[in-house]
């Protein structure tokens, strides 16, 4: 088997078989296939696509390129959730303890933020003492003991994805549907959960701006998951505006805690109940997602969801007192209101612009080496459909104590430009756009 022949085969539009895909992925991970040949293959895939069988085989080869996590020692159906990334997306911090409190074990491996989208690990690490680095044994022990853990990737998990993503990032082949699906699903399948709920975001603040593309990716990933023997459902959700009101690490943890108390923003609560309802259904804890919603609402009302959050924080060496005293979270040195220059109704609120504004304050990373400031970010006081009067606060900037006037002025300008107001009242947009089973 020659790499040249396989590149030519894909370039000419033919499908690669399992043996050929295994040969390519294994050879690249082992350093036997050079970057320039794999780059050519990625570009051939970008233009000629892959069918469902090829995509499944690609995902499997990536899973088998490294370690896989065995969660069989944990009793029950282990359920995981994945989001394709957005602005203000705090769902994991709410969902993991919420679903665990309802009886379904959650062993969640999460990532860090880059660019305008936040990372769950960065958010959790704004809790004093919270540790996201866990060995596999510690992860399994924690979930066996209390039903939940959220940690960073451990060991040599899917090394093929790390190598291929770095290559795609510099060869303009990131936005290929089979390569996106293989990247996401290889990590999920290697993580060991029995069932998966995927939150596929679309809109201004999402990786996929186009709704049709989001549904295409959702269908592709659900097919991969189900054919790999994992019960999989995808929920396609709207990310044309930030989720909730908080954008920034400690601010989002505060909002998650409020949501676990039943006091969070309606859209964040709605998404968590929808995703959580499906998680409980796939875990066999209820027959239908609506029953799952009811069960989750009872865990919030009884206080057991918040108690499970505190257990998780304690288990991972954090200060669980933050659940009752939010002032223990990092606090911004400067708080500045962004005043509306005109009145009307909010017609648009660009999620990506708000994410970039928060990043410029230090809430996100411009590159992998950027240092996060957990206290900074933006609180949104107005969202799509809300009425606004001249001089009213659109949002509140939370900045570091040494933030210069030039930076604050720049961020205020970015926030104001992210809002579009009009005189006529507009309807609030749908959050849940569809479900792919």
Outline of the structure:
The protein has 437 residues and is α/β, with parallel strands linked by helices. The protein has helices at 3-11, 18-29, 35-48, 52-63, 91-101, 120-124, 136-146, 159-169, 177-190, 211-227, 249-260, 266-282, 289-302, 304-315, 351-361, 405-418; strands at 79-83, 106-110, 148-152, 195-202, 231-238, 246-247, 334-339, 344-349, 377-380, 387-388, 393-399, 419-422, 432-436.
The end-to-end distance, rounded to whole angstroms, is 38 Å
The main sheet orders its strands as 1-4-5-13
Which ranges are low-confidence, i.e. pLDDT below 50, for 5 or more consecutive residues?
none
* Global structural class: alpha/beta
- CATH fold description of the largest domain: Pyrimidine Nucleoside Phosphorylase, Chain A, domain 2
Percent helix among the residues?
40-55%
Largest sheet, described in full?
4 strands, mixed
Q: In the CATH classification, which architecture of the largest domain applies?
A: 3-Layer(aba) Sandwich
What is the name of the CATH superfamily of the largest domain? Nucleoside phosphorylase/phosphoribosyltransferase catalytic domain
| Shape descriptor | globular
What does the radius of gyration come to? Answer: 22 Å
């Amino acid at each position: 088997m020659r790499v040249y022949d396989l590149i030519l085969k894909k370039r000419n539009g033919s499908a690669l078989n399992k043996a050929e895909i295994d040969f390519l992925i294994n050879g690249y991970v082992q350093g036997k296939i050079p970057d320039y040949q794999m780059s050519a293959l990625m570009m051939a895939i970008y233009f000629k696509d892959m069918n469902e069988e090829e995509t499944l085989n690609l995902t499997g080869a990536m899973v088998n390129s490294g370690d896989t996590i065995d969660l069989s020692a944990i009793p029950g159906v282990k359920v995981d959730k994945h989001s394709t990334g957005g602005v203000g997306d705090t769902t994991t911090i709410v969902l993991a303890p919420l679903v665990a409190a309802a009886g379904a074990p959650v062993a969640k491996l999460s990532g860090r933020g880059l660019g305008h989208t936040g990372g769950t690990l960065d958010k959790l690490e704004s809790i004093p003492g919270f540790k996201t680095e866990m060995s596999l044994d510690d992860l399994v022990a924690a979930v066996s003991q209390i039903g939940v853990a959220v940690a960073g990737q451990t060991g040599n998990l899917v090394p093929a994805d790390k190598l291929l993503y770095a290559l795609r990032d510099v060869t303009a082949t990131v936005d290929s549907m089979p390569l996106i699906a293989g990247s996401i699903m290889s990590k999920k399948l290697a993580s060991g959960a029995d069932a998966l709920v995927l939150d596929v975001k679309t809109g201004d603040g999402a990786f996929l701006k186009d709704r049709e593309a989001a549904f295409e990716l959702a269908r592709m990933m659900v097919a991969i998951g189900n054919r790999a023997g994992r019960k999989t459902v995808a929920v396609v959700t709207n990310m044309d505006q930030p989720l909730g009101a908080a954008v920034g690490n400690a601010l989002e943890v505060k909002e998650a805690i409020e949501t676990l108390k039943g006091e969070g923003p309606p859209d964040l609560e709605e998404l968590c109940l929808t995703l959580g309802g499906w998680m409980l259904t796939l875990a066999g804890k209820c027959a239908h997602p609506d029953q799952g919603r009811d069960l989750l609402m009872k865990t919030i009302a009884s206080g057991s969801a918040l108690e499970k959050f505190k257990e998780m924080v304690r288990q991972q060496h954090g200060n669980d007192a933050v659940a009752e005293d939010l002032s223990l979270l990092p606090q911004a040195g400067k708080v500045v209101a962004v005043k509306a220059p005109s009145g009307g109704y909010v017609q648009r609120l660009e999620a990506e612009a708000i994410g970039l504004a928060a990043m410029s304050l230090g809430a996100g990373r411009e590159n992998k080496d950027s240092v996060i400031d957990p206290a900074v970010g933006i609180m949104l006081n107005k969202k799509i459909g809300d009425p606004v009067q001249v001089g009213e606060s659109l949002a509140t900037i939370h900045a570091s104590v040494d933030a210069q006037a030039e930076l604050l002025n720049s961020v205020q300008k970015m926030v104001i430009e992210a809002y579009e107001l009009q005189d006529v009242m507009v309807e609030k947009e749908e959050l849940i756009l569809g479900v792919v089973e």
